[in-house]
From TrEMBL:
Cysteine disulfide links: 137-164
Organism in which the protein naturally occurs: Knipowitschia caucasica (Caucasian dwarf goby)
GO CC aspect terms: extracellular space
GO molecular function: serine-type endopeptidase activity
Keyword Signal attributed: yes
Protein name (Swiss-Prot/TrEMBL): CUB domain-containing protein
Length: 225
């Protein structure tokens, strides 16, 4: 995708174009939480590191409702997906409002445009959006009597903002033994159990046996439980 500002050249005059980088963050309509001014046209181009994808959601959304959101709107550009345009009030579940929509990009780029027309007489308060990024991780399903799982890129450092779900399934009667090899190195905290990164083992039929580990010693990992 070209820079969002180029994409937005389609939209007549662009007043403000903000480049947003980082693994997570938030932005909001001009003047938020106060009512937004008239005649605004603002864009946020969010870019995460290559290989990441972005998730966007709205914690507050209050724009003047209109047919097909032609007056005031928030428009989201995601490569490979339809362009989404929102207006109305989230709290009232207006048609056209994002409600609980979470927008997920296929790539590390996502653009958001906010436009208001010549009036905001009912004093709509605009929006607040949050985004996070993550590295998509392919789910593995292991069914052989023995196999290997590792963190992405192992033994190199694992990427930030990654969540991987893997399943080990063996015929009934088998027990599963997990054996960790060196290096075992998951970010930990001296006092709080695994607040940042963790490995969670969740036996399918016994949730009480959930095991959470982090740390860097195979023989004495910091245990969350
Ligand atoms: Ca308006």
């Amino acid at each position: 995708m070209a820079s969002g500002c180029h994409v937005l050249a389609l939209l007549a005059v662009l007043h403000v174009c903000v480049e947003v980088t980082g693994l997570y963050g938030s932005f909001s309509s001009p003047g938020f939480p106060h009512p937004y001014p008239d005649n605004q046209l603002q864009a946020w181009n969010i870019s995460a590191p290559v290989g990441h994808r972005l998730k966007l959601y709205f914690t507050h959304f209050s724009l003047e409702p209109s047919d097909q959101c032609e007056y005031d709107y928030v428009q989201v550009f995601v490569e490979g997906n339809e362009t989404l345009r929102f207006c109305g009030e989230q709290e009232k579940s207006d048609e056209g409002s994002p409600r609980n929509t979470v927008i997920i990009s296929a790539t590390n780029l996502l653009s958001v445009v906010f436009k208001s027309d010549f009036s905001n007489e009912e004093r709509f308060t605009g929006f607040q959006a949050f985004y996070t990024s993550e590295v998509p991780c392919e789910t593995q399903i292991l069914t052989d009597p023995s196999g290997v799982l590792s963190s992405p890129g192992y033994p190199n450092p694992y990427p930030p903002m990654t969540k991987c779900n893997h399943t080990i399934t063996l015929p009934e009667g088998f027990r599963i033994l997990l054996d960790f090899s060196e290096p075992f190195d998951i970010e930990s905290h001296p006092e709080v159990p695994c607040p940042y990164d963790l490995l969670r083992g969740l036996p399918a039929q016994s949730f009480s046996d959930e095991v959470i580990v982090c740390g860097n010693s195979l023989w004495d990992p910091t245990s969350g439980h």
